[in-house]
Amino acid sequence: MPSPSVEDYIKAIYKAHAENGSVATQELAERLRVSAPAVSKMMRKLSALKLLTHAPYQGVKLTRAGEKLALEILRHTRLLDLHPVPAMGFS
Q1: Residue ranges of the chain with pLDDT lower than 70?
Q2: What are the residues whose beta carbons fall under 8 Å from the beta carbon of 74, sequence distance 6 or more?
Q3: CA separation (Å) from 91 to 48, 75, 88?
């Protein structure tokens, strides 16, 4: 499983792409409340992992593997949000 920071970036890219169609580095920096150089560093890492493609001045886009990972992360997050509540006797 990827690190929490990788998961955060993947989720942010997936959600931003769904909302806007393209994802700029600066937008990711604002969403994740990190510096633009930190985003650039992570983009290089995610690109090396073949989870996204990055074109200067065009933003980033998840690859099929990146989209699959994003959906898996979101599914797990939703399950964690929903499952413990009834299991623990909470409404």
Answers
A1: 1, 76-91
A2: 11, 14
A3: 44, 21, 9
